[in-house]
Amino acid sequence: MGDTQYLQGTVLNEEIECSLAEICRLCGVTAEQIHEMVEEGVISPQGLSPTKWHFTTIEIIRVQTAVRLQKDLQINLPGCALVLDLIEELEELRLLKRRLT
Amino acid sequence: MEYKDYYQILNVSRDATQEQIKQAYRKGARKFHPDVNKSPEAEKKFKEIGEAYEVLKDPEKRTAYDKFGSHWQNGQDFEPPPHWDAGFQFGGTGYTGADPTGFSDFFETLFGRAQFDGRQRHHTTFRMKGEDQHAKVMLNLRDAFHGTKQTLTLNRPVVDNQGHVITTPHTLHVAIPKGIIEGQRIRLEGQGLPGVGGSPAGDLYLDIAFQEDDLFHAEKRDIHMTLPITPWEAALGASVTVPTLAGNVTLKIPKGSQGGKKLRLRGKGLCTERQKGDQIVTLRVVVPEAVTDEQKQLYTTMAKLMPVNPRQKMGA
Fold first, then answer.
1. At what angle do helices B42-56 and B59-66 cross, to 10 degrees?
2. pTM of structure
3. For site-directed labelling of B51, which of A73, B105, B152, B315 has its Cα 20 to 30 A away?
4. Touching check for B68 and chain A: CB below 8 Å?
5. Which alpha helices (DSSP H) does chain B contain, by range?
């Protein structure tokens, strides 16, 4: 098994930055959907206007999660924003609990 | 194949109304959605619930399923009686909502293949990019620190030579680079579900999560650890050996340290070429038990020589 080919993927880490077109392609959504998600506060990209927007891993993961929550649980966008914020808070609390025990 | 007790999976009685089934599904889907529920079992449970709902929400499939009777146990070895599906047609509804890639052999044998087959014939000119697929990868901290190679097995649908769509295990070998952290994803372009009508395949995303570790825990790139020390090491200072993900290192404890003090080992966290993490060591002073008279005497002497009121700020 010495000649097994290992796939090298792209790590979505803190160095990744992408444009509106790229995030649409990565997440399989339309530009309109991204606009709506920005309006509802699901994501907050850097940059003042849509042509200058850039998105990081945090936004990519939040968009992908929002798409799944919409599809699987029929949650609307304000609901997705709330769920994502609560998941984030829950993660922080879990880490805090881990640190204290 | 194993019998699936869809009523038990949804936690409803066999005479539940369609409304009760829908409510039970919604409740279970919210509870076990893999984005919401972080337990490793959640994804499997979520798919089971989706599969159960796929059958029970459809009156025709439910009636056919009910014909097997109520004496079967979940997981029991099962073969459907011949012509069990005579008089039923399952082509109409399709997979609404649920992700069919994780459905059981039980479901596929009963409902899966006929349906895809119908679809295949009716939509020959249909073109669509394959769906993206997500898989959770549990790493231990050492592998995340050093980088690792993983072999994953995912279920994915393929078309067999009779034109039926069946799910088969698909094995992937993936290199995980060093310094990956929890919550990050690895995108493998074109490794998702195949496209329809000659369109490109979707992408596969590996969602990284960490296994619990007895010694260490990660917060973003930093590794936290609690280090027990003696009162004299804390008071007088000492050089002690500390485990890190990179192996043992020597840590200098400054004299006069108190329990709870944090010391930072630079670069011993989860690092990539450009991103650096540290190991953060929190000191915990272990008080030796006084057993013999001589040991008790020692504490009494300390009390005399080093009077201290640690509760001063409490006004006591």
1. 100
2. 0.75
3. B152
4. no
5. 6-10, 18-32, 42-56, 59-66, 105-107, 113-122, 141-146, 231-236, 293-305
Contact residues, chain B, for A72 at CB < 8 Å: 29, 33, 46, 97
In sequence order, the 6+-apart residues with CB closer than 8 A to the CB of B214 are none
- Give the neighbor-by-neighbor strand order of the sheet with B222-229: B216-219, B222-229, B279-285, B262-265
* ipTM, 2 dp: 0.84
B106-127 pLDDT tens trace: 777 777 653 443 344 444 556 7
Domains identified in chain A, total number: 1
The amino acid present at A97, given as its one-letter code, is K
Number of domains making up chain B: 3
Is the residue at A9 inside a domain?
Answer: no
The one-letter amino acid code at B161 reads: N
DSSP secondary structure letter of residue B101:
G
Domain extent at residue B133: 129-212
**Please, are residues A62 and A42 in contact by the beta-carbon 8 Å criterion?**
yes
Could you give the CA distance from residue A51 to residue B72 in angstroms, rounded to a whole number?
60
| Chain A residues close to B38, C-beta within 8 Å | 94
pLDDT tens, A55-81?
A: 999 999 999 999 999 998 999 999 999
The pair of structure tokens assigned to B157 is 């649908």
Q: Tokens standing for B26? A: 């919604």
The 10s digit of each residue's pLDDT in B269-301 is 999 999 999 999 999 999 999 999 999 999 999
- What CATH number corresponds to the domain at position B170? 2.60.260.20
Among residues B122, B147, B174, the one where a domain terminates is: B122
Residue A7 in domain? no
Note whether B224 and B198 are same-domain residues: no
Q: A73 and B132 in contact by Cβ < 8 A?
A: no
Residues 6+ apart with CB under 8 A from B42: B32, B33, B34, B36
Query: Chain A residues with CB inside 8 Å of B187's CB?
Result: 9-12, 26
- Can you name the residues that pair with B151 across neighbouring β-strands? B173
A26 and B CB contact within 8 Å: yes
